Amino acid sequence: MPPISQENIIVDSSMILGFDPGRQKCGLAVMGVDQTIHWHQVVVASRVIDSINALREIYPISLLVMGNQTTSREWLQVLNDKYALTLDIVQVDERNSTLEARSRYWQIYPPQGIYRFIPQSLRKINHPIDDIVAILLIERYLENLKDIDDLQA
Question: How far, in Å, CA of 31 to CA of 29, rounded?
Answer without folding.
Answer: 6
